[in-house]
Design goal:
heterodimer, A: alpha/beta, Rossmann fold, Alpha-Beta Plaits, two-stranded antiparallel sheet, 10 helices, about 30% helix, B: alpha/beta, Nucleotidyltransferase, domain 5, six-stranded mixed sheet, 6 strands, about 25% strand, globular, MTH1175_dom (chain B)
């Protein structure tokens, strides 16, 4: 079972839901993996005081020029769709932060003057405690293409585990990379026009990708039905409501998960998981 | 020597467009022949790294000096490799900036004056 957690809008509580969901499943017979794929700002590790067992660097290939072979034909410049190579006088200028590692330049260079060389783009850290594993991805400072690091985190997915993937906000490539191939996506939102606006974008993205989803309303207030009306209209299940409460925010701000600060949430998260299992089975 | 000014129009009476990679035109003046003409900045149509595409365009038009407002790190690196000198102004008509350049009143950029714009 692979469950992704997305939101559209940032700061709605994806990590709050992901961490408590993972902790509520500790008694399940299957091991639990929490993948922190919010690689630009990974923070799930703050809630689990675990020692990192290992870390692996993530590399992407970028072109390197051998001037003894280069004939200054400009084929590589013509091929590059990202302007990552410029031919200026007798210099081939390569811009690593613009390169998307497509490989077009070194495949099509007529003299094999361009060769792929590894560029570090991030790291993947693994922490383990009993049957629980936390895998965190970190994008290297100055790098701005996150999907390769997200994919490196997801390469650690264990098919026999319950895999929970905490993703970044938005609805573009990084989020598509975290929801891709998952059995279900939990969308965490808040009852504000901003929460709704970005929720709509995320739902539309999931529909294109054909991934089933349901909604968790965080910071819920009884008199506000802005999200309820949308979900009813779209036939989306509301899986859980987390009320707007100072106590929840206060504990969370100290790095304490919801289920640890208030254990009566544990059965609710377990029910959330069982609901997702039922939704997937349908 | 060819001097190009990033502009919003095609003549010396048009305003400077301070965005190097996204300006509409470059008004080019040839110091020796005194000729003036404009080229469209096709680099601005790039989805990303417009500054690099723009620098390549200026290089292809054998420009020696570019006058603009803002130059980012990638564009600066590309212009440096092309041996194109960068002078920065803030605002005014193309003719005013050319005048300031000739009088030595524009500062030569020794590095990018804005951060990366993303790509």
């Amino acid at each position: 079972m692979r469950i992704s957690i997305a939101s559209g809008k940032g700061g709605t509580g994806k990590t709050l839901v992901a961490t408590s969901l993972a902790l509520s499943l500790m008694d399940q017979p299957r091991p639990v993996q929490l993948l922190d794929c919010d690689v630009e700002e990974p923070n799930a590790h703050i809630f689990f005081k675990m020692k990192q067992a290992g870390s692996q660097k993530v590399f992407l290939p970028i072109p390197k020029v051998d001037y003894d072979q280069c004939q200054y034909c400009g084929k590589c410049v013509e091929v590059c769709q990202f302007n990552a190579i410029a031919l200026m006088k007798r210099t081939l200028v390569i811009f690593p932060d613009v390169c998307h590692s497509c490989g077009g330049c070194w495949y099509l260079c007529p003299t094999e003057a361009l060769q792929p060389t590894p560029r570090e783009v991030g790291a993947v850290g693994i922490s383990q405690s009993g049957s629980f594993t936390l895998v965190s991805g970190t994008l290297k400072l100055g790098t701005h293409i996150s999907p390769p690091v997200i994919k490196a985190v997801r390469a650690k997915e264990d098919p026999d585990s319950i895999v929970i993937i905490d993703g970044p906000p938005g609805s573009s490539c990084p989020v598509m990379t975290i929801v891709d191939g998952t059995d279900y996506c939990i969308l965490v939102t808040e009852p504000t026009p901003f929460g709704l606006n970005d929720l709509v974008l995320a739902v539309e993205m999931l529909q294109v990708l054909g991934i089933a989803c349901g909604v968790v309303i965080n910071r819920d207030v009884p008199e506000n039905d802005i999200i309820d009306r949308y979900c009813e209209d779209k036939g989306l299940p509301i899986l859980l409501r987390i009320p707007l409460k100072t106590e929840i925010a206060r504990a969370y701000a100290k790095g304490i998960t919801l289920v640890e600060s208030d254990p009566h949430w544990k059965p609710k998260f377990l029910e959330l998981y069982q609901r997702v299992v039922r939704e997937v089975a349908q | 020597m060819r001097v190009a000014v990033s502009a919003s129009g095609q003549t010396q009476l048009d305003e400077l467009n301070p965005r190097l990679g996204r300006c509409e035109y470059f008004v080019i003046v040839d110091d020796v022949s005194g000729e003036t003409w404009a080229i469209e900045n096709t680099g601005r149509l790039s989805t990303g790294a417009a500054g690099i595409a723009t620098a390549t365009l200026l290089h292809n038009h054998q420009v020696d000096v570019v006058i603009t407002g803002n130059v980012g790190p990638n564009a600066f690196t590309a212009l440096e490799a092309a041996e194109i000198k960068v002078y920065t102004g803030t605002k005014g008509k193309v003719q005013d900036l050319l005048e300031q350049y000739r009088n030595g009143n524009l500062s030569k950029a020794s590095g990018p004056n804005v951060g990366p714009h993303g790509s």
